[in-house]
Amino acid sequence: ASVQVNSILHIDHEFNALELKPVAVTAKLNNLEEFTLSLNEDRFIFNVSQQQYKFTSFRGELGPMKMTAQFSGAFTDGHFSLHGDVELPEFNPRPLLKISQVNLPKQAQPKAFTKFSGGFTLDAGMDKIMLSNINGAVDGTLYEGNIELNNFDEPSITVDLEGGRIDMNHYVGLKSDAQQSNPKFSLNSFAVIAETAWSDLVEFLAMRL
User: Fold this and answer.
1) Alpha helices in 142-207 (DSSP H)
2) Using one digit for the tens of pLDDT, what is the confidence trace for 19-48?
3) Contact 44/59 with Cβ under 8 angstroms?
4) pTM of the model as a whole
5) d(CA 76, CA 81)
6) Which of 90, 129, 206, 208 could join 149 via S-S bond, C-beta 3.0 to 4.6 A?
7) What is the rounded distance in angstroms from the CA atom of residue 52 to the CA atom of residue 181?
């Protein structure tokens, strides 16, 4: 990977605060040759005496995906913490699936999984990452919930998501000779509650039609 960083460093006369503004990071990743990762920050402040830091107007971009956020955090007694609200405006995720070698079923309709948007609150520490107040839409289907990753030494993940109606034919399709004889298959609503070791497949424990 190749990384380029541009910024101006400001230090107060008592060396109590460090400030970078603006901050621009551009990275070309080996496994993402089609896209450039771009991170931009209007202002980064680190208070040396209080061991606190803050990002303002953070923006990230990777291909069609754009992200805006406000972050703050601290280093206290060797522990790291980060808090912020993240927004992902609507974009087409298909190009990211392609470079991640994730393929949709061949029967999926051309417009399937072409609209994604979301937002969440991020809380991260030394041994946990929590995504709370998750909300957004996939192809018009609304979703909300929480995701939590615990214990980085032996990671486990807890997923609690629910959402609205999903037309499954939109993603798996129907054979042309069966479209008129078979009714459309849809989930009027869904709920996913799962807890698993990070190395295992996420198990669906509850789903309602």
Assistant:
1) 169-172
2) 888 888 888 766 665 677 788 878 888 888
3) no
4) 0.76
5) 8
6) 129
7) 63
